[in-house]
UniProtKB/TrEMBL annotation:
It comes from Altererythrobacter litoralis. This is Homoserine dehydrogenase. Belongs to the homoserine dehydrogenase family. GO terms for molecular function: homoserine dehydrogenase activity. Coiled coil: none annotated.
């Protein structure tokens, strides 16, 4: 019998417990696929005695998770703690520094420190794997690193946050309130420890920055992701979108365009969008994620599945362990860190799109004319003024409209013209419309 691959696991929350259950349930199948047994030998978390519904007695325990990396009986470290810095990063550095492969589900850490960790891994010729960090159980990291590697990718976009998708699709189906549905997503284990990361789009931005690096061979640039969350989307917007033939989804999108000198510029953005009901992303409900990758030879590929939750995320973590058991190292970002290109951020103002705009305005004559004038002066052409109805929040009036296709900067300019107007009683909401 070949030597087992011996695992040290830090973090015994939703994902950590899922990994232990999977290693136990699929033990024989994993050994067959990996060519050797995969054995958990030691664990670490904040509280040794918390009830988790699993028996930890077969495993060693470390109060200090970084000690897992130093144990002689640990071959591979699995980090399922979370947080971009702090103990997760200390552990990651300790593992790779000790020449041990690292598997992590921590997109925050990879988005912020992935390049430095990858350099460390490459210098030691050990694996750094993070399939679970992007879109949970969907093999999209592997898909882009291996499956599409013969292509020049034109664009990568999709739904990368299960919590937001659960909130938006549940609000759509049941009309339930935002806070109530967020509570459900937390209870189901989809949300981050701090759910602000989910609802403000930061988690999706972490994942997008990772996909952009792998898909375009770019150095990770998380700070350049233009990010808008879903907290300002109201039930009324979801209802308006429905009337118009759209659903609202948090869409992450990245592509590369040349600037005037021909140098590649990277656009990365996360924002709620109106998605036509006929689009494949419109039927993505609940905590499901979906990633579209458009290759110059493959055409449009759609990766879809559970983006969060115990089982699917554990599935991705253990798939990485199988690769390591098979001695598959590979560059963490597909090509060596030194070969990744530094791409300046793209400016999207010239890009053409249709836009949904929602204004909350004072109920008095002349307000609509003022908005229409700002649109005209900025060169925005209004396709339809959808509704004028009482908004949910008091005596104001809700005005929603859809623009004809035009440069993005014109809508920005129109909103700038309206800034400070006492006709507007709340900040307008701008949702781009995803083309078919
Ligand atoms: N829950 C999900 O659906 C998914 C989670 N992830 C990622 O997986 C990682 C783990 O997520 P969850 O299991 O949901 O988190 P969790 O909050 O359920 O579990 C975290 C575990 O780490 C331990 N921990 C946290 N801070 C610690 C500290 N300072 N010292 C010692 N132990 C500490 C906790 O005691 C707990 O055992 C995170 O990076 C998360 O972003 C990735 C994909 C999906
Ligand atoms: N909080 C994340 C968990 C998976 O990455 C999400 O909701 O998608
Ligand atoms: Na994944």
């Amino acid at each position: 019998m070949p030597d087992p691959l011996r695992i040290g696991l830090a973090g015994l929350g939703t994902v950590g417990v899922g990994v232990i259950r999977l290693l136990d349930t699929n033990r024989d199948l994993l050994a067959a696929r990996a060519g050797r047994p995969i054995e958990l030998v030691a664990v670490s978390a904040r509280d040794r005695h918390r009830e988790r519904g699993i028996d930890l007695s077969p495993y060693g325990w470390e109060d200090d998770m970084a000690a897992l990396a130093q144990r002689d009986d640990v071959d591979v470290v699995v980090e399922l703690v979370g947080g971009s810095d702090g103990p997760a990063l200390t552990l990651a550095r300790a593992a790779l520094g000790a020449g041990k492969p690292l598997v992590t589900a921590n997109k925050a850490m990879i988005a912020h420190h992935g390049l430095a960790l990858a350099e460390l891994a490459e210098a030691r010729d050990v694996a750094l794997k993070f399939e679970a960090a992007v879109a949970g159980g969907i093999p999209v990291v592997k898909g882009l690193r291996e499956g599409t590697s013969a292509n020049k990718l034109e664009r990568i976009y999709g739904i990368l946050n299960g919590t937001c998708n659960y909130i938006l699709s549940t609000m759509e189906d049941t009309g339930a309130d935002f806070a109530e549905v967020l509570g459900e997503a937390q209870a189901k284990g989809y949300a981050e420890a701090d759910p602000t990361f989910d609802i403000e789009g930061i988690d999706a931005a972490h994942k997008l920055a990772i996909l952009a690096a792998i898909g375009f061979g770019a150095r990770i640039d998380f700070d350049a992701v233009r990010t808008t969350g879903i907290t300002r989307v109201q039930a009324a917007d979801i209802a308006q979108a429905d009337t118009l033939g759209y659903v609202i989804r948090l869409i992450a999108m990245t592509d590369v365009e040349p600037d005037e000198s021909g140098a590649p510029r990277l656009l990365q953005r996360v924002r709620p969008c109106l998605v036509p009901k006929s689009h494949p992303l419109a039927s993505v409900d609940g905590p499901t994620n979906a990633v579209v990758a458009e290759g110059n030879f493959s055409g449009r590929l759609l990766f879809q599945g559970a983006g969060a939750g115990e089982g699917p995320t554990a599935s991705a973590v253990v798939a990485d362990l199988i690769d390591i058991a098979r001695d598959e190292v590979g560059a963490p970002f597909s090509i060596p860190v030194a070969s990744l290109a530094k791409m300046a951020p793209a400016e999207p103002g010239h890009r053409m799109e249709r836009t949904y705009l929602r204004f909350t305005v004072a109920d008095r004559p002349g307000v609509l004319a003022e908005i229409a004038a700002a649109m005209r002066d900025a060169g925005v052409s209004i396709e339809s003024l959808i509704q004028k109805a009482r908004s949910d929040d008091g005596g104001d009036v809700l005005v929603a409209m859809v623009t004809h296709e035009g440069p993005e900067r014109c809508v920005t300019q129109a909103l700038a013209l309206l800034e400070g107007s006492d006709s507007l009683t709340a900040q307008p909401l701008v949702l781009p419309i995803l083309p078919d």
